[in-house]
Design a protein that fits this description.
Blueprint (H helix, E strand, L loop, with lengths): L2 H19 L13 E6 L7 H13 L4 E7 L24 H9 L5 E7 L2 E3 L11 H4 L14 H9 L8 E2 L5 H17 L4 E5 L12 H11 L8 H4 L3 H25 L4 E6 L3 H8 L3 H6 L5 E4 L6 H14 L10 E4 L5 H13 L4 E5 L1 H6 L8 H4 L2
Parallel strand pairs: 1-2, 1-10, 2-3, 3-6, 6-7, 7-8, 9-10
Antiparallel strand pairs: 4-5
Helix pairs in contact: 2-3, 6-9
Length: about 375
Amino acid sequence: MNKQIFEFVFRRVAWNVTLLFFIPNLLFGEASFDNRVLWVVRDAMASSESIDNLIQFADENKFNHLLVQVRGRGDALYDSNIVPRSVRLKDDGFDPLDYIITKAKPLNIKIHAWLNMYYLWSASSMPNQQDHLLYTNPEWLDNHSPKNVNISQSLIEIKNKTFNDEGLFLAPTHPEVSRHLIEVVEEVVQNYDVDGIHLDYVRYYNEHYGLNPVGLSFYKKYRGESELPFLSTQIIQDPIWGSFRRKSVTKLVKGISNVIKANRNDCILSAAVKPNLYSARNDYGQEWDVWLLAGYLDWVIPMNYLPELDIFSTNINVIDDNLPQKHRSKIIMGLATYNQDTQQVAEKIQFTKESGFNGICLFSYNVFRDTTGYFNRIKNHIVP
């Protein structure tokens, strides 16, 4: 048995035995998390009615931070001059981000604009918006081979489910991509009184990606060579390539951090990251320990989603091995609800609390909205 799990089980048994002798302590309950955070997927942001229901749920259940998805697939659920409006919005005059900020402020619920960064498209047909990046800048797409993506073929593969399990990504190694995404964030922080910006998909699709042709030309310069001396299949095994990939993503995070500090220094910058720090670095280009230590992020939210408690615990052990204890307050532990029952989730919430984290983020509100009674069965573990 994982050592940390054994200690957790031992503490829980001891705690329950203690309760038999000190029943009055139940009157005081356990301490709650300081940061009680909820991911809100974009379909819950499509109308004023759905937002009203969301705000009521958050207020009644004492969530104090909402990560509301307003950029899903290269589109905007807010008013933008540089990003096409989401087709989910039927009312041309409705601004979901402005509406939820207005509703949440009197209740002291903090609103973070959740923006998918490199993730661009997942459908099997082209976007309806002609100004979508898939039309205007297809050369910005990332690839697992050193050539431009064949979009038509990719859409067929998405339809036949022979493509990757997510879709088309922008290339972190392409400098124009970073400039565009920084402008996206800058527009939001300049025009909206958000309490935070939450970055999602600030990563490569997997360890084989990053071979965008323009990106490779910058990799040659990074190596100080005019030509690459090996095949593309060998590039991904090159230690210098790994460094180049990570630095490309880190450059974006740093650039966004600078923009936020220049415009809204009180705005929290957070990122959803792969929970195992070693895999995050090596496979996905997310050196999120560096992002925290350098002060680029205020929060990091590991997506510690798998149902198995031993894997959940191992990811926490890796954090302990790599980050000083003083940074624990900047880590908001992310838990999933869509793939496990309430007993499993309750166990992980308690494990998170006893591991010394003072913040938790649940994925997602949409599960609680659509599954009757789910949240009520875990509620007391979050706010006793």
